[in-house]
Amino acid sequence: MNKYINLDAKNIDSEHICCAIGDPKHQEGVDKKKEWIKKKLKDGHVFRRLDARGKTFIEYEPLDTAWVPVSGKNYEYIYCLWVAGSFKEKGIGRELLEYAIDDAKKKKRSGICTLVSKKKKPFIGDKKFFEHFGFEVVDSVGDYELMALQFKKGETPKFNDNARTMKIKDKDFTIYYSNECPYVEYEVKELSDYAKSKKIKLNFVKIDSLKKAKDAPCVFNNWANFYKGEFISNTILNANAFAKLIK
Fold first, then answer.
1. Could you read off the pLDDT of 178-196 as tens digits, one per residue?
2. Nearest 5°: phi and psi at 12?
3. In Å, how far are 64, 219, 221, 232 from 236, measured between CA atoms?
4. Contact call for residues 218 and 165 (beta carbons, < 8 A)
5. Which tens digit of pLDDT belongs to each residue from 108-129?
6. Which helix H or strand E contains 95, and what residues bound it?
7. From 3.90.950.10, 3.40.630.30, 1.10.3720.10, 3.10.20.30, which CATH number describes the 4-160 domain?
8. Distance CA 220, CA 13 (A)
């Protein structure tokens, strides 16, 4: 039987958080992610992972306090469900999701929801996997979809109106990001140094509060790229990827 660990105030400093394991360049991002989780625990934030050294976890919390531009009464929101490498095809993803569903029911939630896309995108949930568990699409913006598993009738979650714009006024390349993901801190620094060396105007907007997250001008999931005022992708960029993109 698979054994799991839920992070809490007592163990979070000594336990790993799956992403960027053993990669020194991302240590600052890991530290900031842990600080972010610590602050979110009071909101009912859950980070549950396999008791092993691997990228196998689920992360969720009440939708009211979740850092996403989505609203809905009495729902849980899944930020990320990730099972990577040799841990695939062992039922771990199913067990993690079933735990979250059961937890939401115990808390008497109306349902649980998450972000997916019509075509698979990086750092976005697998639509077919969630469909297998009864999740249905309840809202969409472009290629992005909000899926929900509803336990009882009531208000259906939806993207906030500001998230539907997928546009900003600034025409320079602009990146919205948050410390929800431990990878972003290093990439922000790398991109900043690259842009400075090439004399490229590059703007960063850090989502560092619940209000900023709920008011995001796009479907936001850790990272969002804008160019000429238009949303172009949610892909986390390093310097090489950015150089190819701007060409």
1. 999 999 999 999 999 999 9
2. -65, -30
3. 26, 14, 10, 12
4. yes
5. 999 999 999 999 888 899 999 9
6. helix 92-106
7. 3.40.630.30
8. 28
